[in-house]
């Protein structure tokens, strides 16, 4: 197995302290948002054999296993991250596989450069994802019941929000949510900025369930995404709890440290809370306008101590082992590729000793025994 040297991405929303605290190093003073583990070409992990991309390209079946290559192609189908949000991320959705292929092919035909700011589809893959909290973790996930959203907006006492409140009461669920989100994102920017400013002041004054939206507005003053965010479920995860985010589900991470895993894709359509491009017509084509409980996941324990976060897709499978002091070793050998990530204590993985934030790549079929005291996350695929 290979010890991984991983890149930390300095996105502006990142926490300045959470990842350094996990790694046991001094903060740099700069935001440290994500640490990437995997073979994404944008920031592949490095090994003693070169980048993980290079190692896999040299022997796809040897590294990934014949079954994984047959099912997903000659590349690692997931990207594992440590994510540290110090400020809200953009409100966003991801396409399903058919939508991603169609959108990518369309933009390729139209000759839009992949790195263009107004391009929506960077690749032809979908991007389901799972976030598992390491600390208390706040986020937004999926639409509220329209009546609940109407009550939240009405409680602000902002006259310019009344038309949205009426829409939420007057239509069937999917039509109500679609009409209000469309109206918010298509409103005159100056008028919406005034509405958001007034709503933000009310949120700050009222506190309680409005406090998260006051904080969002502090980071994104005047952004229509502040109002769009109030249409969504607010979720506070406790350590070990997780959220699965499938195609078309609007979501945003607000604050906290977590382990994130996703299909290996960059496809994002933004709804707000960002200075980046918002393609409203394409966004409305992708969003699933249905109210639903966000569905907080808790791991399901197996007899051997593995705690699995069950999801409906095959590109990734995330689980963890919480190893007690004096416990026995666990054989994690598997016919698929794996990344093992320590998040607490000291874990022995093969010949490597891992402290929090350190990880290894285990090629398919390679013997993988873990021991020690602490927590290790295991990322692999289902074939």
Please tell me about this protein's structure.
With 383 residues, this protein is α+β, with helices and mostly antiparallel strands. It is 28% helix and 28% strand. The chain contains twelve helices and 21 strands. The protein has helices at 18-23, 52-58, 60-64, 66-72, 97-109, 146-154, 162-170, 173-186, 189-206, 211-219, 225-229, 280-286; strands at residues 2-3, 7-9, 34-38, 46-47, 50-51, 78-85, 91-93, 129-133, 137-143, 232-237, 242-245, 251-263, 269-272, 300-301, 307-309, 317-323, 330-331, 338-349, 352-354, 359-362, 369-380. The strands form four sheets. Strands 1, 14, 15, 16, 17, 18, 19, 20 and 21 form a nine-stranded antiparallel sheet that branches. The longest helix is centred in the middle third of the chain and has 18 residues, at 189-206. The protein is globular. The two termini are 21 Å apart. The model has no long low-confidence stretch (mean pLDDT 95).
Question: Tags for this entry?
Answer:
383 residues, alpha+beta, 28% strand, 9-stranded antiparallel sheet, 21 strands, globular, 8-stranded antiparallel sheet, 28% helix
Brief synopsis:
With 383 residues, the chain is of the alpha+beta class. It has helices at residues 18-23, 52-58, 60-64, 66-72, 97-109, 146-154, 162-170, 173-186, 189-206, 211-219, 225-229, 280-286; strands at residues 2-3, 7-9, 34-38, 46-47, 50-51, 78-85, 91-93, 129-133, 137-143, 232-237, 242-245, 251-263, 269-272, 300-301, 307-309, 317-323, 330-331, 338-349, 352-354, 359-362, 369-380.
């Amino acid at each position: 197995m290979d010890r991984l040297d991983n890149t930390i991405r300095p996105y502006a929303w990142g926490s300045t302290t959470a990842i350094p605290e996990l790694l046991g190093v001094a903060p740099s003073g700069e935001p440290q948002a994500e640490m990437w583990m995997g073979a994404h070409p944008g920031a592949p992990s490095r090994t003693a054999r070169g980048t993980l991309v290079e190692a896999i390209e040299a022997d796809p079946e040897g590294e990934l296993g014949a079954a994984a290559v047959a099912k997903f192609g000659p590349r690692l189908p997931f990207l594992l991250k440590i994510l540290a949000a110090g400020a809200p991320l953009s409100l966003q959705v991801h396409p399903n596989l058919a939508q991603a292929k169609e959108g990518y092919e369309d933009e390729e035909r139209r000759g839009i450069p992949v790195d263009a700011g107004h391009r929506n589809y960077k690749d032809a893959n979908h991007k389901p994802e799972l976030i598992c909290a390491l600390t208390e973790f706040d986020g937004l996930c999926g639409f509220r019941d329209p009546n609940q959203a109407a009550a939240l907006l009405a409680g602000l006492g902002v006259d310019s929000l009344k038309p949205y409140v009426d829409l939420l009461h007057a239509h069937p669920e999917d039509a109500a949510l679609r009409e209000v989100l469309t109206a918010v994102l298509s409103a005159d920017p100056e008028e919406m900025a005034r509405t958001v400013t007034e709503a933000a002041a009310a949120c700050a004054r009222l506190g309680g369930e409005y406090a998260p939206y006051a904080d969002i507005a502090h980071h994104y003053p005047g952004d229509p995404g502040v109002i769009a965010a109030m249409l969504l479920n607010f979720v506070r995860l406790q350590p070990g709890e997780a959220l699965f985010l499938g195609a078309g589900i609007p979501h945003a991470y607000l604050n906290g440290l977590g382990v994130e895993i996703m299909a290996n894709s960059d496809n994002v359509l933004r709804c707000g809370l960002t200075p980046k491009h918002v393609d409203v017509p394409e966004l409305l084509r992708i969003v699933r306008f249905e109210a639903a409980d966000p569905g907080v996941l808790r791991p399901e324990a197996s007899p051997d101590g593995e705690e699995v976060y069950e999801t409906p897709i095959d590109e990734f499978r995330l689980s963890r082992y919480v190893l007690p002091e004096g416990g026995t070793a666990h054989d994690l050998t598997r016919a698929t590729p794996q990344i093992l990530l320590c998040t607490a204590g000291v874990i022995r993985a093969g010949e490597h000793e891992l402290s929090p934030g350190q990880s290894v790549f285990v090629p398919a079929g390679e013997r993988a025994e873990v021991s020690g005291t602490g927590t290790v996350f295991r990322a692999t695929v289902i074939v």
